[in-house]
Design goal:
Shape: globular
Strand content: 35-45%
Largest sheet: 4 strands, antiparallel
Distance between the termini: 34 Å
Structural class: alpha+beta
Number of domains: 2
Strand order of the largest sheet: 1-2-3-4
Order of helices and strands: EEEEHH
Number of strands: 4
Number of helices: 2
């Protein structure tokens, strides 16, 4: 499984391919620009700083509205079977 992050223009910014713990750190494995293998280390101190990001209005509204946003995204995609009629 992987998680792809896009730029506002729609190109691939990075693909997260894995996650592991290394001692006290979290290591994210990714493909930068969708092609260059890279490991990013996140320390416990940096993780604590991310709590502030998680408490932002933008993130909280996204989490609360996620079921609605997911359904809306799925409904807005064109059904490929419709062209075969």
């Amino acid at each position: 499984m992987s998680l792809t992050a896009y730029t506002p223009e729609g190109t691939v910014a990075t693909v997260f391919t894995g996650m592991k713990r290394d001692g006290n750190n979290l290591v994210l494995q990714q493909l930068a620009a969708g092609q260059i293998p890279l490991e990013v280390v996140i320390t416990p101190e940096e993780t604590l700083k991310s709590v502030g990001l998680g408490c932002s209005l933008g993130f909280l509204s996204f989490v609360l509205l996620f079921p609605f946003l997911l359904v809306r995204a799925k409904l807005s995609k064109k059904d490929p079977r419709a062209d075969k009629a």
